[in-house]
From TrEMBL:
The lineage of its organism: Bacteria, Pseudomonadati, Pseudomonadota, Alphaproteobacteria, Hyphomicrobiales. This is HTH-type transcriptional regulator TtuA. Keywords: DNA-binding, Transcription, Transcription regulation. Pfam families: HTH_1, LysR_substrate. InterPro entries: LysR-type_TF_proteobact-type, LysR_HTH_N, LysR_subst-bd, WH-like_DNA-bd_sf, WH_DNA-bd_sf. Coiled coil: none annotated.
Length: 303
């Protein structure tokens, strides 16, 4: 009996409560004949009469009274569960799970997240920051943040954060005094460079550009890390040359702890994107976040 149609059980409950086919039909917005058909099917499947009906009245049988007493609370829970889905379909509510690179979590995502959550207090935002570049959908995330070269196919991409960024190369004054100032990117091959490697094992290639000329090297040096904090501390301590996002090096450059190298060769690249799968029924929390990003972009385009 586990395959009884829920609609037939709901029809029986409505008729038994209203004690009238017509009243139940009005409340359900259906015809009285359709409710009668549902009740007939249910009684045939169960092999027991549930309602006594005459031209004047409808009353539950003993079996019908017992079924109604047990069925009504269960159907109420089903209705509540289905009603709760409105939070995810119509209202911006629920949990939004994002997978983002650590650089996004450090440079711009906190400010964006705070402004978004103030507008939508019923949304819970879960951010996982890592540099493994996993399949975000397979891992159960609603969306991810990536730079364009890492955005998967068949995904929708929406700009988020700064639209242009720079990689800057720098070293401490003590290091440059001892080893000299590089004049061309190829000179870096003769220097000790502080390398960044992701947890996936992928190491960063240093890329440079000037006047249409490009140059790329795989740096070598005594230190390799996946932690920008370690890399920055090592550069300030004079261990070698560092190359990273300009925003990360700016405090050291401003304080004089670091000196820019090959600044006219600094490479620029396009900013990150929020990306997600194209789907007909987008979760309300994700839709709200996408609309929020688009609106912020219109109000104050990011450089």
């Amino acid at each position: 009996m586990s395959d009884l149609p829920l609609s037939d059980l709901d029809a029986f409950t409505a008729i038994a409560r209203e004690r009238s086919f017509r009243a139940a039909a009005r409340k359900r917005g259906v015809s009285a004949s359709s409710l009668s058909d549902s009740l007939r099917r249910l009684e045939e499947r169960l092999g027991v009469r549930l309602l006594n009906r005459t031209t004047r009245s409808v009353t539950p049988t003993t079996a019908g009274e017992r079924l109604l007493a047990q069925l009504a609370p269960a159907l109420g829970e089903v209705a509540a569960a289905l009603g709760a889905l409105d939070n995810f379909r119509d209202r911006p509510a629920g949990t939004l799970r994002l997978n983002v690179p650590t650089i996004a979590a450090r440079l711009f995502l906190p400010d964006i997240a705070c402004r978004f959550l103030k507008l939508y207090p019923e949304i819970e935002l879960e951010i996982v920051a890592e540099d493994t570049f996993i399949d975000v959908l397979a891992a159960g995330f609603d969306a991810g943040i990536r730079y364009d070269e890492r955005i998967e196919r068949d995904m929708i991409a929406v700009p988020i954060g700064p639209r242009r960024q720079r990689y800057v190369t720098a070293a401490s004054p003590a290091y440059l005094q001892e080893r000299g100032m590089p004049q061309h990117p190829r000179d870096l091959l003769e220097h000790s460079c502080i390398r960044h490697r992701f947890l996936s094992g992928i190491g960063l290639t240093w890329e440079f550009e000037r006047g249409g000329e490009t140059f790329a090297i795989s740096p070598s040096g005594a230190l390799t890390s996946n932690s920008i904090e370690i890399e920055l501390a090592a550069a300030v301590a004079g261990l070698g040359i560092i190359s990273s996002f300009q925003e990360l090096l700016e405090p050291g450059l401003a304080s004089g702890q670091l000196v820019a190298i090959l600044d006219d060769w600094a490479s620029e690249f396009s900013g990150p994107y929020l990306y997600y799968a194209s789907r007909r029924h987008m979760p309300a929390a994700l839709r709200a976040f996408v609309d929020f990003l688009k609106l912020e972009r219109q109000r104050a385009p990011l450089g």
